[in-house]
Every structure is written in C-alpha cells, then in structure tokens.
Amino acid sequence: MDRKSKLQLLLVALFLLGLMIPIENVFAAMCSGDNCTGLYADSSCQGTSGATPFTYGSAYIEPRSSSVCKAQWTRVTNVAPGSRWTAGSTRYGGTLYEMYHQSTQSASQIGYGSSIYTRMVGSDGGLGVIDTLGCGRVSTSQISLPVGGSQPHSSPYCSGVW
Amino acid sequence: MKSGLKAVWILLGCLVVLGLGLGIRALLLRGNITVKGGMDERLVYAAVDEFDFSTSSDVVEADESVPRTPPVAVESIEPGLDLKRGSFLTDEIMVQLDELVAEETIGGIWVGASRIVHGDTRAFVRICMALDGSPERLMFGGPIRLDYPGGSSEAFFVHNDVPDERRAACEVLEFVGVVPENDRSGWRFTMENVMFTIPDEGTECDVYQKRAEADKRLQDAGVTVACSHSEGVTSLEIASKSAGLSMTEARKLMEDAAYGRYRGPWVYNLPVEVGLVRPGD
Fold it and tell me: Mean pLDDT, chain A, as a whole number?
C-alpha cells in the first residue's frame, strides 16, 4: 500500500469515527416532536401560548406550545405579593391525563413576577398532537408533585375543560 | 521544513474530515436525538393535596340544549370548578369591551379599563397598560380582584388583545365564579401591580440583565445582578451592592427592575353591561 492510499484510508477511518461518536443532545434546538420530550424549551422553539392562560390561587399558568419543536410545556409565574414556592406539571397520558407528567419546582421560594417552566412533551411522532394539561401552583411551602394530583382533569390548578 | 508543512496540512485535513463526519452525524440525528433526563413516570400518589370535586353538591345534570356546557349550578359555583368549564369569550363581548371608560396614571404607569360585561358566571373586563417612554410591554400583575354585589373573584382567564391607539398592551380578563346578587351596581376592579411581560424561554437572563442594566434605581443603588438559568428555573442574585444597602432592599430593587414590577393599586368602580356568553366555546 503506497503512502497516498494509506492517507486516504486514514481519512475514511476518521470520517467514520466522526459519524460514530455519540452526541448527547442538550439543546431543544436539535429536537422535534417525540424527541423533545424531557428537554427544556429554548429560544429556538419560539414558544407561544397554547390553551388560554389563567390565574388561580396566585399562580399564572400558561400552557405553552411550539410549532417549531412540535411540543408543549407549562410555564408558571408567581403573582402572589411575596416569594413563594412555585411548581408546574405538564400532564398527559392515561384516560384523564393522570398517567405521565413533566414537572418542575423552584429550588426555593421565588419572587413575585418570577417564572418556572416544565420540560417539554413532544407531539406523537411529530405529526399528531398529544393532549396535555398545563398545571401550576404557588405556595408558602413545598408543593407535592405532580401538580394536579391524581385527578388533573378536575383540578382547578390545571387547564382544560371537563 | 517542507515535510513539516506537509504534516501540518495532513493534520488539518484529518481534522476537517473528522469535523465533517461529526457534522453529518449531528444533521442525521437532528430530530432523532436520544433524550437524557426525561421524567416520564408512572405516578405514585402518596401525598396529594388537591381538591376532590367528585362529591361536590354543586354539580348537577347538564342542560341538553347546550351539549358542551359542563354540569354546574349557576346559583353557587366555586371559581376552581368554573375554570373547568373553559372560556366563554365571544366576538360580541369583545365589541362591548372596546371602549375604555376609566383610566388612571400612577407612578408613570397608565392603566385604562373598559366597562364590565357579565353573563352566566363570567365577568369580562378589558385593561390596557402603558409606561411612557419604555419599549417594554406590560401585563397584569397580581393580586387582582373583582368585587361584585355579594362576592368577589380572584380567578380568571387571560386573553391577550391587540394594542390600543396608545400602543398600550391590552388584555381581557375573564373572571370566573361570578354570581352577583344584582347586575348593575357595586362592581369594583382592583389591580395591585403591573409588571413587564415574561421573557420567552431561553432568553430570560438576557432580558433580565438588560432590564437591570437600564434601571436607574439599580444604578443609583450600586447594585449589579448575576443571572443563571438551569432546568426551567432562572436565578437572580446580587453580584455587588453599595455597603449602605441591606441585602433585602437590594433584592427587592433587583426584582423590581428585572420583572418590571410597578405598584398601584389601580381601583376602578365600573359600570356593568349584560353580555351574551357562549358556554362551552
């Protein structure tokens, strides 16, 4: 094998090595649909309001969605006149959204006007849309997760209608 | 010398090819990445502090003529229950809310309010807010309360609206569980605060830092802010402050600037109109 062939072989080997190196995705920019499930939205998702946002018990609860990432999540803002624990859950699956959740809680009490948001739930196969409920609460003590408990469909802390 | 140069070229070529491979790999994986840290879980309900509405005496049979209306008794309805009936806002109500009938400027913040439109268990009011000379868009700030004859409500849907002629941000608030003793008098809308709109996901620290840097109150107090964002939660900390300022005061100044909190209250006694709602829409 001459020197030129060896060089070509080396380049091919390196190319194949590059293809095989595992890449851990941490950016929502690289996800779509199902593959966004469990990731946090970033600016590339260009989130917008999904279902009508609402306020209950000093929590401003926004079901959020992205047509770019084909995913949904929930953002919760503390609008109580003081710092509060703040938690949100995006509920899905089962017969009444009770089976799965993506939940986030602040690490401590956060100030009035501050927000948290949950990981995303991707649309099924990137084609259909998985039905979700956006749930949120603020409290002076830590909040049991998931928000919405065992009956999220009837919880006032969760979006959606009967 | 010549052979050394050749070796450098070969090394560079190798790196380019390796990078090409990685790039193609990333493109192939776009939209098909292995998810790390997903939280799909089957649930264990050990401690759930939720209401159980299944035995509520307020729930009665639905009227079959309005098939999408959930079963509720209008004479007594808890706001949390009423939220589950969804929004009743219609185009006709939007027209009724168009005119602003009250306004007040407090601390440089102008807030206008429409009349109240009431129908079924809902009361609608349109509010518009503006801060002169600021490019920031405002939104409602809690606590917000609607007092009506025989009760009050603090639970509401929020409908974003188009800006009015003053380029103010407007929202229609749809209060739920509103069952007044009469329809016409004693209605009062109270909003304690307003704040800047919430930044889009992934832009929080950029936005909060810019607001903090532009805030004269923070500059005068010598406060600088450090922001970090991780896993859906944004943390703001005091990076530096003047010696005479307590940490509590500094923190309040920082949050006022970053979240754009402005205090009122704006309190309006508003006229009421009857509106045609469409339950279940």
Answer: 87
Q: Evaluate if residue A61 carries a pLDDT over 70.
A: yes
Each residue of B1-27: pLDDT tens digit?
Answer: 566 777 777 776 767 766 665 655 544
Distance of CA A156 to the CA centre of its chain: 21
List residues bridging with A48 in a β-sheet. Answer: A65
Name the residue among A85, A87, A89, A84 with its Cα closest to residue A105: A87
Q: Give the tens place of pLDDT for each residue, B118-138.
A: 999 999 999 999 988 788 889
Cα distance from B243 to chain A (closest Cα, Å)?
A: 23
Do B268 and B173 contact (CB within 8 A), yes or no? no
Q: Enumerate the residues of chain A whose CB falls inside 8 A of the CB of residue B261.
A: 112-113
Give the residue, B62 or A76, on which the prediction is more confident.
Answer: A76
Reported ipTM: the value is: 0.82
CB A4: neighbour CB atoms within 10 A?
8
Which residue of chain A has the CA closest to B80? Answer: A156
Mutate one of B14, B15, B203, B233 to test the A interface: name it (highest A CB count within 10 A): B233
Contact call for B155 and A104, based on CB within 8 A:
no
pTM assigned to the model: 0.77
Compare all CA atoms of chain A with the CA of B281 and give the residue at the minimum distance.
A161
Collect all residues with Cβ–Cβ distance below 8 Å to A161 and sequence separation of at least 6. B70, B84, B85, B86, B280
A17, A37, A155 ranked by CB distance to B50: nearest: A155
